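Q: Given only this backbone (184 positions), what sequence would you predict?
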């Protein structure tokens, strides 16, 4: 968890990727859904009228959440990632917010991207990495480079062969031969 909400810390004691320069370039935007709050490009939330920071807490699966007061006085938990999506990205069906470095607690704008669900799955920690074309890359990227596209059955077949100790090239050749035979 990033500890930039501790009021006893001086600016030079802020840890992680948040430095004095990052905080100096911070831009605040009023939340479109929760009008009493502003969210910043660094992923901090504050009350719009008092400019008081709202302290987040660690929610499920590593996401940071805050308790937000709705218009009628009731508090509700909201993920900071959702607030960032509403403030800085245009919502689209089938798209998800992706944390580039995999740290779900780091909601800085430079760590977020709004991508299709398939692209978001490539950034998971449990992604199968393969050595192909002299580079180490996610299995899904390698499959798309070899076959032109990927489907679930092709991915599952090749991933199971790799988990059994086979290399990517051999598993891809076997899958291509299988697909060629099934077309006839």
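A: Predicted residues:
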């Amino acid at each position: 968890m990033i500890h930039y909400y501790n009021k006893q810390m001086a600016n030079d004691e802020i840890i992680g990727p948040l430095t004095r320069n990052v905080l100096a370039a911070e831009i605040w935007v009023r939340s479109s859904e929760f009008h009493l709050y502003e969210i910043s490009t660094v992923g901090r939330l504050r009350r719009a009228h008092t400019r008081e920071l709202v302290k987040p807490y660690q929610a499920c699966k590593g996401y940071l959440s805050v308790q937000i007061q709705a218009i009628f006085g009731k508090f509700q938990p909201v993920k900071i990632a959702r607030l960032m999506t509403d403030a800085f990205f245009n919502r689209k069906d089938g798209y998800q917010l992706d944390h580039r470095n995999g740290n779900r607690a780091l909601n800085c704008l430079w760590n977020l991207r709004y991508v299709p669900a398939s692209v978001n799955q490539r950034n998971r920690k449990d992604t199968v990495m393969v050595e192909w074309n002299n580079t180490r890359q996610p299995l899904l990227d390698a499959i798309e480079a070899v076959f032109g596209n990927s489907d679930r059955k092709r991915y599952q077949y090749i991933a199971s062969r790799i988990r059994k100790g086979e290399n990517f090239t051999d598993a891809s050749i076997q899958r291509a031969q299988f697909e060629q035979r099934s077309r006839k």
